[in-house]
Amino acid sequence: MDLVKKIIKGDRAALARAISLVENCSNETNSFLEKIIPLVGRAFRIGVTGPPGVGKSTLTNELTALIRKKNHQVGIIAVDPSSIFTGGAILGDRIRMQPIGLDEGVFIRSMATRGCLGGLADATTAAADILDAAGKKYVIVETVGVGQSEVEIFKMVDITLVVLSPESGDSIQTMKSGLMEIADVIVVNKSDRPGADILINSLRSTAELSEKTKDTPIFKTVAQQGEGVSELFEYLEKKFSGSGQSEAFQQKRKFLFEERLRSLVVRRIEADLWSNKKIQNLLKEAGRKMGQADNQPVKVVDKIIKLFKQNKK
Question: Is the pTM for the entire model greater than 0.90?
Fold first, then answer.
């Protein structure tokens, strides 16, 4: 049985192998991704992001437990920081998700950021497609949680949960820097701790300053105790069940597709650009001339672009 057929059947070993192939940019990747694309689009993709230490993994764990009670299958992609020695994922989130890790209806994959902008590995979207094709009704992507760069998650999921806690420190500044704009839902976790109500009032005040964010719902949870998570899941479930008829949902899916095309085009062009021997030599020459008056960065860039265009004619 080939890899695609095994993926469709939900074979766990095949899923792990397929995701490894897209992570490593294997030559087999494009062929099997093309075959599964007709099966993609049935899963509801949820992004979970926010500053470190707010309880994202615990919240993901509790949401998954509620989804499994409905007998739906779940795929989880936990984007971990990369090891500075191997480039691989450190697996911190995987350790925290042990309570659901033994459930056959849950597939968890840790992926390394590999230095990618926004803390998202290049292969994360492709991995979500693979889990989608395997019949996972919910695919949850939990990001590293490093602040403003986490806005990249918005470009690959149907709905984005921004998780904060009373101990988030400069969380309001973080929200103003970009997270507020991409939050479809704000979750104030650890809401049993001092300062939770002050944080929520501050968030509501900040949200009301923008037409785009003023209606963003805010949920209070204590994920470690399971408090408030069922109300959050009910909201998400309603969003998913009505998504087929929602024009906003369809517009978001079109946006995600366009963003993916842009990303693929940029990566293809970038690979061609830096593999060009003449451009490589030009870069080395510029390095040797560093500091010289006629070796301004803007001029060097113009030369590189001109040379690249000439080679493409």
Answer: no
